[in-house]
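Lecture 7, part 2: worked example. A protein chain together with pyridoxal-5'-phosphate.
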Amino acid sequence: MDVKFTVLQRTFELHKEEYEEATLRALRSGWYVLGKELENFENQFSQYIGMKYGIGVNSGQDALILAVRALGIGEGDEVITQSNAYIASVFGITENGATPVFVEPDEYFGMDPEKLEAAITPKTKAILPVHLYGHICNMEKIREIADKYNLPIIEDCAQCHGSKINGVKAGSFSTISCFSFYPTKPLGAFGDAGICLTNDSDLNEKLRMLRFYGSRQKYVSEITGINTRMDEIQAANLSVGLKYLEDEKIYRQNISDKYLNGITNPLIKLPETRENTEHVYHIFGILCDKRDELIDFLAEKGIQVGIHYPIPPHLSPCYEYLGYKKGDFPIAEKYADHEVSLPIYAGMPDNEVEAVIEAINSFAG
Ligand SMILES: *Cc1c(COP(=O)(O)O)cnc(C)c1O
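Predicted complex, written out as structure tokens:
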């Protein structure tokens, strides 16, 4: 058996003709940057999530950097995020000169609202929850605390396109929400792409300027900005992908059902879903005390898995200057040491899912 962690070609092939058509349409239009395809996609995607404005950018990373910048956050300011965030979530903060403050995750890998209030200081300028693995954080509680302190929320939605809490989608709880369309994400482009969503018309204008040399009008830079725009070919393809986002989510949820029902090995802790939420399973993350042995065992059987992520941000070499040490965020460190991501993607064949289940159940430690 040869089971890869992900095979992007299989997801592409589910709607190959439509992607090829969209690509040709964009190519033949003769207009490649800031055109109709992007405008369409910005409208479609913001409507899908339930936000007023969409601002397409070059990556999820740029979306996060611009979101923090648009809120006027910089040196001397603090932004609260999760200790188990992806490093790009934290770069959104530090690339603006601001300081990240970490809150530990709950048992669902999202920001623990019980620990949020203690992290708020007079320097706090925003809260940045990360909906890790495709499972929305406890946004109702987080929103309550943010409102109490009058703090804006920036949601990192790079892994959770379509995830919901009480029927409300991730990405609609914040002042600015940021999505990535990196090829492996629940909605993936064929290259890099990302988007900021907001309901605020001033922030919409500001984000549009920030992604376009700080200008509203070509060659008139009102503020300093960068050049980060989603191109027409990616936007045209993302409009196709958006049509099938719900189908592909169901495809992954069917795989997750099989894993949840089929994996019975007591050495494995399966992921749980909080009541009233919908998990879209960008990542199916299990915990295992004997992780290295498990990964080797699976590799021998031809099964490739992932780790998301092996080093928590506070222990990353780039953040040595923040002065953290091992033991400062034990929950994030525990996840970093024990997590294993199983293959899960739209187009993954049943026999491969069965092979993963069988292999894991035969792991004896
Ligand atoms: C992928 C990802 C990002 C960055 O998105 P890119 O498009 O790859 O720049 C940010 N945060 C999280 C949680 C991610 O998974």
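The chain is about 35% helix and 15% strand. The pocket of pyridoxal-5'-phosphate is lined by residues 59-61, 86, 88-89, 130, 156, 158-159, 180, 182, 192, 194 (CB under 6 Å). Keep this in mind for problem set question 3.
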